[in-house]
Amino acid sequence: MRIDPQSSDAVVLDELGRRLARTRLERNLSQQHLAHEAGVSKATIERLEAGEPIKSTSLVRVLRALGLLDALDRLIPEPLPSPVERLRLQGRQRQRARGGGWEIPPEDAKPWRWGDEEARDQ
User: Fold this and answer.
1) CATH of the domain at 52
2) 76 φ/ψ angles, rounded to the nearest 5 degrees
3) How many angstroms separate the CA atoms of 122 and 113, rounded?
4) Separation of alpha carbons 35 and 38, rounded Å
5) Domain membership of residue 59 as a residue range
6) Global pTM exceeds 0.90
7) If you average pLDDT over residues 3-8, what whole number do you get?
8) Which residues lie below 8 Å from residue 53, measured CB to CB, with a gap of 6+?
């Protein structure tokens, strides 16, 4: 079954539980074993697979134990910066290098002096 925006919360939780149960069975894991690996109770796994509400931390633990935690990154991707934010950041990007100041002097150039050396030398 496909989860769509018109699905009720109960339908979404039922489908999520069904999919997680199928994934667990495909990996040949018992509810007890998955509960142990996830650090939750067997009753939590039973509630999850039955489509009942559970704590979000328990869901994260179960997804981690099943190796599916990276699916949350695809589910809720990192938001892109807004157009205003991109414009603000763009102003901070370096546009060109500073000129002058670090040129190599020619070989016949005189060494730099303060200018008051002649008065002291006399």
Assistant:
1) 1.10.260.40
2) -125, 85
3) 16
4) 5
5) 9-75
6) no
7) 86
8) 13, 47
